[in-house]
Amino acid sequence: MTAQQAVATTAGATAAGYKAVETLYHAFFTGLILTVITRHSVAGAAELMFRTYRRQHLEKFLPGLEKLGLLGLPHAVAAAQYHYLSNQMGGVGVEYVHETDRKVWIRYPPPRWIWHGTAICAVPSEVNRAMLRGWHAHNGVSLGNPRLGFVCTKQTVDGQPGLEGYYCEYDRDLAPEDRLRFAPDEAGPYFDPAKAPRVAERDWPAERLQKALRNYSLDYIRVVLPELLALFGPAEGGHLAGIAARQIGMQYQPETAGLLGVEGDGMEALADYLTRMGRAQDDDTDWKRDGDEIVIRQSTWRLMRGVARPAPGVFEAWNALWEGAASVLDRRIELKVTQRRDLGDPVFEWRLAQRRRPL
């Protein structure tokens, strides 16, 4: 293999790893919301969506405007361009139409990113509306402009061809309940990609965009897990998060293993899978044999980067992803946690051993 071929192979493996992480965590986020809808309540799922998207908004909106070079634009334009550009970089289909400096449309055509595949059929209108309340309705507040609101004209969860609406700057200050309005009798203009904003390629090269896709999914889990546990409590919240994680880990293990190039079963295949997933998350992860067992160590936790003390229950829910994946790759193997970095140990450590009883 030439040096050039080796570089190409490494780049391909990195891209595949990013895709594996993006796929798993994207599914985990959708699965968490569906689990709350089906196992708790629609109202609970709506509140979780509101909290998740409001927290995301408060963390990311204003810094994102600066990163994307949108500061100084009219507020309706800046808000719509932020959603267009950031969602595109996160792999979300989105359209943008500038009608005036005070009225700018965005539209998320099917297939919807968040409600992946057939999940769209299980999402009530209230849950999707809560997302808009959490983020879109708060842009004017964050910009210090009490006249800026969002008008939603369509929702895919209601059987309409896309989530659509426009940012509108009114001639008056808006009361809190007026910051989000629904007008299903209105329809947006057609999208012309040639007139849409773009990010400079020199600022967002291919590798940075690949990482952005992965980080988009990771960041939703970083936010939603603590919010879920705070909303429903450690017992109920932990149950909901754990069963969703285990099911997603089982359901997506074959697909993500294929992306990572992991084949076969047995302890070494499982160790290889977990190690490659860890490294694709930018975590320092390795494994080694210890007698009849295999030890996997991870010394960082990219998912919770910047979180001083993750909420109780976050690790258990996250670890259930790997328990689910392990149970599919090889039911003869037990995955045991022997060290926890979130509890003060220097690393996360798992031990793989043969089960005494079938799972």
Plain-language structure description:
The protein has eight helices and nine strands. The strands form two sheets. It has a five-stranded mixed β-sheet with strand order 1-2-4-3-5. The chain has a domain of 126 residues: 2-Layer Sandwich (Muramoyl-pentapeptide Carboxypeptidase, domain 2). Helix 1 packs antiparallel against helix 2. The N terminus is likely disordered. The two termini are 43 Å apart. By secondary structure, the protein is of the alpha+beta class.
List the helices and strands and how they pair.
Elements: H1 3-39, H2 42-67, H3 75-89, E1 95-100, E2 103-108, H4 125-134, H5 139-142, E3 148-154, E4 163-169, E5 180-182, H6 206-260, H7 267-280, E6 285-290, E7 293-298, H8 314-329, E8 333-339, E9 348-354
Parallel strand pairs: 3-5
Antiparallel strand pairs: 1-2, 2-4, 3-4, 6-7, 7-9, 8-9
Helix pairs in contact: 1-2, 1-6, 1-7, 2-4, 2-6, 6-8
